[in-house]
Amino acid sequence: MPAKKEMNKTYFIEQTTAPEVPIILSVPHCGTAFPHELKNDFKKELTHAPDDTDWFVHKLYDFAPALGITMIHANYSRWVIDLNRDPESKPLYNDGRIITALCPTTTFFGAPIYNDERKEVEQQEVNRRVQQYYKPYHSKLAELIEEKKEKFGKVLLWDCHSIRQHVPTIYKEKFPDLILGNADGTSASEEIINITLNSLQQGDYSVFHNHPFKGGYITRNFGKPAHQVHALQLEMSKTMYMDDQEQRYSEARANKMRDLLKAVLTKLIIALK
After folding, report:
1. What is the 3-state secondary structure (H, E, C) of the chain?
2. Contacts from 256-260 at CB under 8 Å and sequence distance 24+?
3. How do beta strands 11-14 and 5-7 pair?
4. Whole-angstrom Cα distance, residue 33 to residue 156?
5. Which pLDDT score is estimated for 3?
6. Dmax over Cα atoms in the chain, in whole Å?
7. CA dihedral sign, ordered 48, 49, 54, 57
8. What is the pLDDT of residue 5?
9. What's the first-to-final CA gap in the chain, in angstroms?
10. Which residues are 14's β-sheet partners?
11. Which of 242, 268, 267 is nearest to 53 (CA)?
12. I want to staple 188 with a disulfide (CB 3.0 to 4.6 A). Which of 85, 167, 192, 239 is the partner?
């Protein structure tokens, strides 16, 4: 039975098709839509396939409802507003890497995305987008977390991401295959982190831990293990489930990755019982 989909302008919810478990998947960067009032502000040749999108990640994880896992994923492009940034625009890292803004004006490679090639989005417009497009996603995520915690006494939020294999403005080397982030061990319990890390290492992939990504705002904000709310971010190189050009979904690569993800999440379901 296909998952029941709930839609809001800013997000989609994939409801479970099996008995519910205390895990939520969040995919904040897979959106490609643009609000009607903003679409013409961006360079038209870029909006049909906006760069920096976590392409197909919600498809990669579409097995989750059959495990009893609820999934929320974004509708709008991160160029409208980045759902994994601090709403007050506080930087997530201070190591010299390029960090695009809450409302970006360039790609990760520094190319302008607006027709007028603006250097920043005016604060009044940023505030409007926070209210219109950012808060609904975060409010729904908080609601889902509270519902799971009330029902099960605990909850795990798994934030799903992907990135080009090489983005030298962020990291000089090619990224490893998988990067588990948990804000240096503060966003989830040691047990949950160890189960996840050990399970990921059972696959045929290189796995880094909290480097070069520790988890973004969603992981850091919602993860409160002392209150039985655990949060993890899994970043992966796009070539782990896309072709070498990072343009097309690769069924063979994706299926291999999906097998690992299913195994990891199944172990976490058992651990959370």
Report:
1. CCCCEEECCCEEEECCCCCCCCEEEEECCCCCECCHHHHCCECHHHHCCCCCCCCCHHHHCCCHHHHCCEEEEECECCCCCCCCCCCCCCCCCCCCCCCCCCCCCECCCCCECECCCCCCCCHHHHHHHHHHHHHHHHHHHHHHHHHHHHHHCCEEEEEECCECCCCCCCCCCCCCCEEEECCCCCCCCHHHHHHHHHHHCCCCCCEEECCCCCCCHHHHHHCEHHHCEEEEEEEEEHHHCECCCCCCECHHHHHHHHHHHHHHHHHHHHHCC
2. 256/204, 257/60, 258/60, 258/61, 258/63, 260/200, 260/202, 260/203, 260/205
3. antiparallel
4. 28
5. 57
6. 53
7. positive
8. 66
9. 25
10. 5, 71
11. 242
12. 192
pLDDT at 6: 67
Would you state the structure tokens that stand for residue 157, as one six-digit string?
């939020």
Residue 28 and residue 160: Cα distance in Å, rounded?
8
Single-letter amino acid code for the residue at 168 = P
pLDDT of residue 39: 94
Structure-token pair, residue 60: 């990669």
Rounded CA-CA distance 169/178 in Å is 19
- Does the global pTM surpass 0.70? yes
Write out the two tokens for 101: 């803004």
Residues of the chain with pLDDT under 50: 1
Spatial strand order in the sheet of 70-74: 5-7, 11-14, 70-74, 23-27, 155-160, 229-236, 178-181, 207-209
Beta strands 178-181 and 229-236 are: antiparallel
Find, among 159, 3, 23, the residue nearest to 66 by Cα. 3
